[in-house]
Amino acid sequence: MIDLHTHTNKSDGTDSPRELVNKAISLGITLLGLTDHDTTSGWQEAVQTVRGSIRLALGSEISCLTNDGTSVHMLALLFDGDNKKMQTMLEETRDGRLPRMRKMIEKMRAAGIDISMDDVEAARPTGATLGRPHLADALVNKGIINSRDEAFQGMLNNDSAFYLSHAAPTPVDAIAMIRAAGGVAVIAHPFASHRGQILKAADFSDLVAAGLNGIEVDHRDQNPDERAMLRVVAKELGLVITGASDYHGNGKLNSLAEFQTAPDQWEKLESLADQRRVVRA
Predict the structure, then answer these.
(1) How many CB atoms are located within 10 Å of the residue 127 CB?
(2) What is the pLDDT of residues 131-151, one digit of tens each?
(3) What is the layout of strands, in order, in the sheet containing 2-6?
(4) How many helices (H) and strands (E) does the chain have?
(5) Facing residues of 216 across strands?
(6) Domain annotation for the chain: domains and CATH numbers
């Protein structure tokens, strides 16, 4: 079983990297992608937990914005974690999250919602990349909403009056950086329409020209018709087709390995990195 998209409490998941790897081992997952938002801070602990037959594909999910303001997430896998330009891009993207969060809270307070930055910080694990899920958790803790899912279906949706984007690279720039750092780039859940504005099929040509390697097709936030459309796009453009859980621990309903990547597709994807960086015991 191959699951290439998961999160820990180093970003907006609830499991530590150690707990995530242990759960994957218990489920019989053979290859696990660790892709916390805009950070590699969970890599070391995850690597230290590897044992038996499980392998790790270390990476990060990079927050991007198109020139017209559409939010896009790019999975970066198998890149050189010591690449300074890559780490600078990740750091700058993380830094843009704090002013954005403050502005979202200001908008909520102006609407009469009793929430503060202190509430969000109390809900964020130490060292985790700040994100909307921590605001959702704070809203849950205060009894304003019932769950993260409710938050992202409503007041934290990309089309909500409270939503704000943050400073982020364009998808083209992110892909170029990933490839320059020796890794592979897979666009995450590009047709997840319930999250807000999405890409169009025609948008993929520019991403392919920039070096895009794959499309995350099988994901719970894309319905069967959307997955079928993405399969056609991927095959027409010669892109790898992946599937993954986007696991967040208790933060979302997603279960580890509920969607998977076929071994032949993974082999093709791995071959496109400049080195074989999969971690083994």
Answers:
(1) 11
(2) 899 999 999 999 999 998 899
(3) 2-6, 31-34, 55-65, 71-77, 184-188, 214-218, 240-243
(4) 11, 7
(5) 242
(6) 2-95+167-271 (3.20.20.140), 99-153 (1.10.150.650)
- Copy the structure tokens of residue 191: 């047709």
Tokens (6 digits) for 170: 């364009």
Distance of CA 43 to the CA centre of its chain: 15
Task: With beta carbons less than 8 A apart as the criterion, state whether 207 and 215 touch.
Answer: no
- Show the 3-state SS of 199-260: CCHHHHHHHHHHCCCEEEEECCCCCHHHHHHHHHHHHHHCCEEEECCCECHHHCCCCCCCCC
Answer yes or no: is pLDDT of 251 > 80.
no
Q: Which residues pair with 77 in a beta bridge?
A: 59, 184
Check: pTM over 0.85? Answer yes or no: yes
DSSP 8-state code for residue 128: P
C-alpha–C-alpha distance, residues 101 and 105, integer Å: 6
- SS3 at position 193: helix
- pLDDT higher than threshold 70 for residue 194: no
